[in-house]
Structures are given as structure tokens and as C-alpha cells.
């Protein structure tokens, strides 16, 4: 059966598509994490940017890359569909990775190397232009991939089938597991290659991985269950707002049955069922009130909208507080690629006399703890807690997110106290605290905060994704998933402001973001 205006390939999809989708995610994440994890070292050691400029460049890039999913979600939901949005965005990302790899291989595309006794020459305007162009292309590419992959994977399961609906929620856990596993390889193997073999290989390998991800994703094309785009969700939301404003003086009806309904008009955006009227945010109901001026047979959507479309807007508004709750978690964890990385560089990282851990590989503790928590959650926690709650997924989205938020708060306090300890050791030995000073304290003191952040991410981030996918109307799931990445953007920009505040005001208690947060 196919609903009019909304073609769905019912016989396709299911578990058979997962190897292709997961293969794409593994290779793509290997490229993304392998590119971004150690990039601050590339900017400071190869392009000779100052720490402040390098960190601001990366946090600006991270914030921008988390905003572009709104554009990608709009394109997917309104025009191209999720499959083609992912495919085209992956090609754009591939071009960006190739340009970065070429710049790392060709000496003319970066400043000459310098020795410790020399003043390093910073990258010139042309070299920086290539860098910024590549970063912009990666931001655009990731904007098409991020909001669509997780929704496209979940779309492969028919929610009208109780067995497949259960599989849908398992998918989120194992999607995040695959993402974390590839990230684990990136922060260990790739970072080691970048620091010890060369940036040509260090960026070339993730570039090749990105090419493989495109090939793997394309092979699954005949098997995918694909939903046709149902029109611009942003246009529909704006139409409801305009219609409600125009009828702001119209009295609210006492009976919801009097509000406008049109099954044929909503067929393309309500294949899984129409949204029912809710009592909150009643002022928006005015957009669905029929007046004498309205033509109910051919309504002007800027003046009259259906209940289903009004409820779409209400759903997004209700998700607002939950969206905002994820920002503090991102702000706390985002510093692992800037502040904590520089913190690790000043600590003793030796495992043996001849081998030391690359500073960027310290985040392996985050990845391991996150992966372990996901396996424990899916295989042990949910089956046990299900006996008490009666919920198929064990606990609700909000409960899962609350647990993650509490653990993130604990990680912040632990990190702040650890920074105080590091400072004390530096003072005891009379060492100047700068990136070139090695303080005689083991880098493994950072392990508790990294592990706690990984556990928090397994609870909070996956709960966030589940919540947005479940609560969003079916025609806006890419858009709703993009809200997850928008919270990452907000967290990155907050980190930028705190970073700048530190360098403007040296009276802060220490240069670690966690301690800054504690003082604030």
C-alpha cells in the first residue's frame, strides 16, 4: 500500500541494510574524527598558528559544522530526500579531505619548518585560504550527513511492526557504538601516525576511509527503504506562525472538533497517522480556525492550516527545553579537543622510557568508557531495569538524559580539582606553565574525567537522539535530528567565549575550562 503523495518502499529496508549504513558511518566517522581530533596540533606545529588562533579556528569550525545540519535537514526533508542528501554531502566532504591532504603533502602549501631557536613563520594568506576553504567544505559536507544518517537508518524499520519498532531503539545504541568504535581507532592509530609518521599519511588514511564510506553506502541503494520528501518543513512552520498572527484577534474555539482538518492535504506528511490536537500553546490553534474569508476547499496556507500542521510546530516548541539541556554537556566535553589536549601536552605521557602516548590519544579513555557503557546499557541495564519499569527500552528518554547530565556534572568537578592538582605540582617544582613545559605528573590523572565524560555521552547523547526522533513528526525527523547538532554548535560557541574570556582576564583560577566553569 502507498499513501498518495508519499511513496514508501515497504518491502525494502530492515536489518539487511544495516551493514551498508554502519559501514558508511564507520568509515565516515574515521575520516571526521581522524581529521579533527589532532587538528590543533597540525595548526600549531605545521601552520605555526598561535594556540589562541588555532583553538578559535577549530571551535569556530566546530560551531559552524554543527549549524549546517539545519541546512542539510532542510534539503533532505524538502527536496532531495535523505539518501541523495547523504550521498552528495559525502562527495563534498571527500573533496575537502583531498584538499587538506594535498596541503599536508606539498611543502609549498604550508610554511617552512622551523627549529626551537627560530621564530616560526606563520601560514600566509593563501595557505590559510586553502585551510578555511577546506574547513568550510567539511562543514557543508557534515551538515548533509549528520542529520540524515541516523534518521535514514531508523527509517529502515517499519514502526507499525512491533518487532521492528523495538529494533529501531536498539539501532540508536549500536549506531552510536559504531560511531564510537571508529572514533577509538582514529584517536589511537591515526593520531599516532600523524604525530610520528607524517601528516600526509595521517590525513590520507581518513581521506581514503571517506571514499570507502561513499562506495559502501552506494552499494546498498537497491535495498534501502526510502521516504520521498514531503515539502519544506520550515515553510509549513512559518505558515502556521503567520496564520496564527493574522487571526490573533479571533476568539479561540471551545471545541477542538471545529478546527480545520484536511486528510488529502496532509496525506504526504502523515503516512504514520495524523497528530492529534493538544491543549497547550492554544494561541497557535488560531491558525486552524475557519473564518468566513477562508476557502476550505483550496485553503491559503498563510491564512488557514490544518490541526496536524499546527501540532508539528507545537511539537518542536515542546522539544525546546530538552534541546537546551544538552548544551551544558557539550560545553563541558568540547574542551577535550582544546584545553584538555594542551593540558595533556604538559604532563608526563610516557608508558615506557622510549614510548609516550600522543596527547590527542588521551581521549581514548572517553571512547572506551562510552563503548563499554553502551554495551552494558543494552545487554545488562535495559533487561534488568525493564522488569521494574515495564518499559521496552528500560527507562524513558528523559530519565536517560538526566542520568547523563548528572554524570557530566560530576566529570566537570573532577576535572576542575584535577587542574588544581596539576597547578600545585607545577608550583612545587618551580616550572613555568606553558605548552613546552613537562610537569612531573602522570597524564593518567586525567583518566577519571575522560571516562566520566564518555559515560555521560552514552546516556545523554543517545537519549537526545532517541528523543528527537521519537517526538518529531515523521516529515520533520531530519530537521529534528539537526537540533541535536545545533546544541553542539551552541556548546562550541559558548566554549569560544569562555576561551577568549580567559585570555582577556588572566585572573581566572586556571586555564582549564572546567575550573573556569567552577569559578563562574
TrEMBL record:
Gene3D superfamilies from the UniProt entry: MFS general substrate transporter like domains
Location within or outside the cell: Membrane
Membrane-crossing residue ranges in chain numbering: 58-76, 82-106, 174-193, 199-224, 355-377, 397-417, 438-462, 482-503
GO cellular component term, pick one: membrane
Top-level lineage group: Eukaryota
Any Pfam family the entry gives: PTR2
Main location: membrane
Membrane topology: Multi-pass membrane protein
InterPro entries cross-referenced by the UniProt entry: MFS_trans_sf, POT_fam
Keywords: Membrane, Transmembrane, Transmembrane helix
UniProt family annotation: Belongs to the major facilitator superfamily. Phosphate:H(+) symporter (TC 2.A.1.9) family.
Cited PANTHER family: OLIGOPEPTIDE TRANSPORTER-RELATED
Name this polypeptide is given: Protein NRT1/PTR FAMILY 3.1
Lineage: Eukaryota, Viridiplantae, Streptophyta, Embryophyta, Tracheophyta
